[in-house]
Design brief:
The relative contact order is 0.10. Helix 6 (184-193) links the parallel strand 5 and strand 6. Helix 1 (16-52) packs parallel to helix 4. The protein has 286 residues and is of the alpha/beta class. The chain has helices spanning 16-52, 67-75, 119-124, 126-134, 149-163, 184-193, 208-220, 236-244, 265-276, and strands at 56-61, 92-96, 105-109, 137-143, 170-175, 198-199, 223-230, 246-253, 256-264.
Length: 286
Amino acid sequence: SRLGGGIGTRGPGETKLEVDRRRIRERIALLQAALAAIREHRQRLRRERERTLTPVVALTGYTNAGKSTLHRALAGSDVLAEDKLFATLDATARRVDPPGGGTPYLLVDTVGFVHKLPHQLVAAFRSTLEEVVAADLILHVVDLSHRKWPEQMATVARVLRELGAQDHPQIVVFNKIDRPEVSPAEVARVLRQYPGSVAISARTGAGLDDLAAAIQERLAARYQVVEVVVPYDRSQWVAYIHHHGRVLAEEHRPDGTFLRAEMPGDHAGRVLAALGGPAAAEPRAR
């Protein structure tokens, strides 16, 4: 039926179905605005991380694989750890300063993937999925105690391909080795099957030292130390190196500015190609 309008009720001539649709549209608009604000906030944080050269390590994996428990174990965070679908809906980042020294990094917990994730949910999880795409290193956490863990691994690999993150550096982390259904022989077998993987129990702490060492080894491989002399008429490369790297030494010489800097491999390659090898496109002035 159609009723006249009133405060907080239906508008003139609106049916109940039309009211429900209008409320749904209003709710969707509010959620879209909130998600846009989250994405903008994360983009600002990402720009700051790039400026300070702080690498990002993203935890990913099938839902209930133990990512949040591992996040708490590595970062001492208060991330919610529950045996529920989508217990972690937003990406949660904490800085990790290795107690024995090493490269500090931001550890990001993300939503767990599921088989045939509905497309309608992809937009809702975009803020957390973007953290995976932007990560320097992905920790693919696998629940080794689950009878279908190979299928779950395949689902995660498919989602990473859809995100364009399949070529990111990755460590497979076999979790829950403390469970009675996981035998030592099974652990040894999967470690042989997946070279470079690590077996842990995030709950008991078993294997966490091996994981920490593997993370440091992979992060160290990201960077390259370059030494170049930048001619004074190409000073934009000095700005480029300062922006994308960490300058270890700088000296003004007769033929140009000498720089020794630690840079991510892709930026280091571009600098060397421009200043010490084949010609490369000039960077834009900042």
